[in-house]
Amino acid sequence: xxxxxxxxxxxxxxxxxxxxxxxxxxxxxxxxxxxxxxxxxxxxxxxxxxxxxxxxxxxxxxxxxxxxxxxxxxxxxxxxxxxxxxxxxxxxxxxxxxxxxxxxxxxxxxxxxxxxxxxxxxxxxxxxxxxxxxxxxxxxxxxxxxxxxxxxxxxxxxxxxxxxxxxxxxxxxxxxxxxxxxxxxxxxxxxxxxxxxxxxxxxxxxxxxxxxxxxxxxxxxxxxxxxxxxxxxxxxxxxxxxxxxxxxxxxxxxxxxxxxxxxxxxxxxxxxxxxxxxxxxxxxxxxxxxxxxxxxxxxxxxxxxxxxxxxxxxxxxxxxxxxxxxxxxxxxxxxxxxxxxxxxxxxxxxxxxxxxxxxxxxxxxxxxxxxxxxxxxxxxxxxxxxxxxxxxxxxxxxxxxxxxxxxxxxxxxxxxxxxxxxxxxxxxxxxxxxxxxxxxxxxxxxxxxxxxxxxxxxxxxxxxxxxxxxxxxxxxxxxxxxxxxxxxxxxxxxxxxxxxxxxxxxxxxxxxxxxxxxxxxxxxxxxxxxxxxxxxxxxxxxxxxxxxxxxxxxxxxxxxxxxxxx
Length: 566
Prior knowledge:
The chain contains one helix and 52 strands.
């Protein structure tokens, strides 16, 4: 058995308003070869030990940056293994799950070996919910005859663990049992598995509220049909989809109906808290040798100001990390951690270079690096053009909203608010066009609609996101000098009246360039969700023909662009 070697870096910066993320100053938490977690100070190189039991797997950073979770090999098994009396010598070892509050460094054991048989409980690495309130993991009694596990959930605030799904298939195992990796995104909890008897690979999606499972066969498990090596949840034009890493390309899969499309570009990693500001965005790009090179992009919104190539031949479990200010990145290089920083040259162009101090942190053989909360995004390009995957047959439209966001009712509409997420539920009120609400829960697919629990000072209940091909409830970001939102992802729009509207290569007018002039009658497609830019204007990512850019919706009470009526 080998000890996992890990690193976590956390630094303190001012973050975008509306997302409270804990960022203690200049800390790096990592595990030495013996498997314990340490914290490492980037500024002076000092280190302090946090755990003292060894054999730790993780750590996994909560999306809000406030806590870590990890898997620690059970001390009972370590003693058996060292004595040569362990029930197994390969695969996943019996493990316990711990959580650490980053501010206080208080450790909490949330899953141990209580009630386990002689062979112990095997557990997967934990996965955080998108709102950081819950953890999920797979749990298996190692003495059980069949390799089927339980999917467990932990409510962090309540301190309660519950069963979400039983009889979870782990896939074919060759003697020793390897617990698969769980990943939790807005679209659910997902895992990959192989079934040798069926000669195929599958991806399983679990509804985080009900535990209901949806399974899709990915490919026959043969040399001619390469299997997915890994996957991540990605934001693709406002929708939460799974991106599969398959040899030298990536595919996205819709968890609602299994539709798959190949991405033209690999997904890119961005700092979750930063929008519109200059930041470094790395991507793993396949090379001819069958492994991955790190390429980087410096961007303000859609403006790829510069790009470059920094490292050949990283391993297939490549996991880049970004600093809280978005200007540095790090990744493991086998015998250390590479550390790079973005800067601007005299021509106001971005360039990336290795950081002199601490370019390779003195950490022997780390296998993962995390830093600030991040998310994977796509460029929206599928076969050269932004394309949304087909929606679920049952729900009609792809859901574009998630809990915690604000939404606005589209113009000239009146939406019924119901007591439950179904058309037969009692109508308890209505929301007129321009009404702003908070998304409290959802989406729930029922009666052909995606339903959301919404609330404001006047009403609380369930309403449908849209119907047919039209969205009624739109993602909303309040910008200081912009009119009410009228557009969302996938809508077609044009310039208002006889206006000519500039499309720019980034959000705002400062440090961006005009890439196209849009006249009335010129139609463009909105490819993502809006952001606030300089001057309090709301900017949308758009595409016209093969050109990508950003257009402001208007100023004050006046609209510069408008939806195209079909």
